[in-house]
Write a structure and sequence with these properties.
The chain has about 140 residues and is an all-alpha fold. The protein has a single domain, classed as 23S rRNA-intervening sequence (de novo design (two linked rop proteins), Up-down Bundle). The protein has six helices and no strands. Helix 3 runs antiparallel to helix 4 and helix 3 runs antiparallel to helix 6. The chain is elongated, with a radius of gyration of 18 Å. The N terminus is likely disordered.
């Protein structure tokens, strides 16, 4: 009979204090901002050329939905390490979305004026995620 022992670093097992878990993800400002961004991005994607239905339109929608989804999933995790990991994934999706919107602007598919609000939400959400991730690392 073989017995496998898995060694998990103390930091990985560290639980998030109850006071930090008390707030529901829907009450978190970062989640609210990311939802507003997802709405804006999906509406903008709908205005892209029909030929982009399975290209950039689809990618923009997926990246936009990924941000609040990963924030929500991370918020529900027990350990700080897991929470930080999902916030990092949300940050990556945010960068992906920003890149896709910039490309649409460069191609002339989206008006720069229509992108002011989404770009502002991207900046705000990014700052909030960075702050959250720092807090999770330092405890």
């Amino acid at each position: 009979m073989r017995v496998f022992l898995m060694v998990v670093p103390l930091q990985a097992r560290q639980r998030v204090p109850a006071r930090e878990r008390a707030m529901h993800y829907r009450d978190a400002e970062v989640w609210k901002r990311s939802m507003a961004l997802a709405e804006q991005a999906c509406r903008l994607a709908d205005g892209l050329p029909a030929a982009e239905r399975f290209g950039l339109r689809s990618q923009i929608s997926r990246a936009a939905v990924s941000v609040p989804s990963n924030i929500a999933e991370g918020w529900s995790r027990e350990s700080r390490r897991e929470k930080a990991q999902f916030m990092a994934i949300a940050q990556g999706s945010l960068s992906e979305l920003h890149t896709q919107l910039l490309l649409c602007e460069r191609l002339g598919w989206l008006d720069p004026g229509a992108l002011r609000l989404p770009y502002g939400l991207i900046d705000e959400t990014s700052r909030m995620l960075t702050t959250l991730r720092r807090k999770m690392r330092t405890g």
